[in-house]
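Lecture notes, unit on protein representations.

Consider one protein chain, 140 amino acids long.
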Amino acid sequence: MKKEELKNKGTKTLGEFKEFIAKGNVLDMAVGVIIGSAFGKIVTSIVNDILMPILGIVIGGIDFTGLSINVKDATITYGNFLQNVLDFLIIAACIFFMVKAIDKITKRNKEEEKAEEPKKEENTLLLEEIRDLLKEKQNV
């Protein structure tokens, strides 16, 4: 490959990359990742600092993260696995309820917008119809 071809190909690829980054979807996704990360910290704190101690009291003071089985020289810490599964289920439930609430708010806003649309009077509709007929006649 010649030097000039390589340079043109690199410039073209860079241009495509700039176009990709400039799209709204990428920016929306970046915002989603950042908010998701912050939300994950909140949910992790709820699980570790509130739910797990309560669950530990209910089941007799057992700390899941300390649960393990020793098999010869290996230690299987299944408590950490249980903790992570519980974290996942709580995060999934929180996201589910948040999306459900947002959908409800969005539907309510759309219904309010539809209700706010002013209805045209009969005279206005009749005049618009006459206008459209006159335009058609002029085009013929």
